[in-house]
Amino acid sequence: MIELHQFRPFWGLPNASPFCMKAETYLRYRQIPYVVVPSGPRKSPTGKIPYIVEHGRSITDSEDIIAHFEKRQDSHLDEGLSEAMRATAFCVRELVEDRLYWQITYMRWGDPTGWAVFKPDLVKYLPLGMRGPVLFLLRRRLLGQMRQRGLSSANPQGAYSQGKTILNALAGLLGDQPYFLGAAPRSLDMSVYAFLANILDQPHDNPLQSHARTLTNLGGYSERMKALCWQGWQG
After folding, report:
1. CA 67 – CA 235 distance, rounded (Å)
2. Which of 70, 98, 120 is the last residue of a domain?
3. Scanning 25, 27, 72, 233, which has its CA 20 to 30 A from the CA of 18?
């Protein structure tokens, strides 16, 4: 049985890490049997999660995990895509996994209102040794990294404006298509859906989530992916 090492479900989400949720969404879409092993970066061979263990071999990075299993499929998720569409998918995925990652990080760790609701629930999942000074230092490091990207805790409106611009672009790219590259899900959808779900489906309102919910095609897309890959899931 394939072991998927990742964080536990959180806030009603399959995973609060979009990268973990991306890998698991793929496994569920492909109906690949696996078992979740609650884990953290310290246990990973590379210091990052998710990672899988199969026949004693570890594979880290959500994109590498997908590539590993796609080699076994009769038909590749991206089969039939033109060179231009593959290039578009690559650029969109890079944008989402960088820029929206930091938006999600900001709305939990950087936005003072978000931190006030995130911290009490976060500490319930942390080992005792990480609930005090270690957590303080981790947040301070993240705040510094966010400031370098123009995401200041003193200016949530300015910080979220970056994310709203990206969401607008995604809504424009999706248009009235069911999925981002047409009528069927592609590898890009495994990633975009995981990031959108972490914005749309988290339980506490924030400006980024409120804006995302005005983009009805993104909401419809997220519901389609959820029905396709997460039907019957209960955290």
Report:
1. 27
2. 70
3. 72
Q: What does the radius of gyration of the chain's CA atoms come to, in whole angstroms?
A: 18
DSSP letter string, 183-199: SS--HHHHHHHHHHHHH
CA–centroid distance for 220 within its chain: 18
β-partners of residue 35 are 3
Domain residues for the domain of 115 are: 83-229
> 35, 12, 34, 8: which is closest to 20 by C-alpha?
8
| 3-state DSSP assignment of residue 24 | helix
Angle (CA) 226-94-51 rounded to 5° is 65
CATH number at residue 50: 3.40.30.10
CB 34 within 8 A of CB 4: yes
Residue 191 CA to residue 114 CA, distance in Å, equals 23
Query: pLDDT tens digit string along 205-231?
Result: 999 999 999 999 999 999 999 999 999
Give the tokens for residue 2: 């394939």
Tokens of 107: 């709305």
pTM value is 0.95
Q: Are 12 and 196 in contact (CB under 8 A)?
A: no
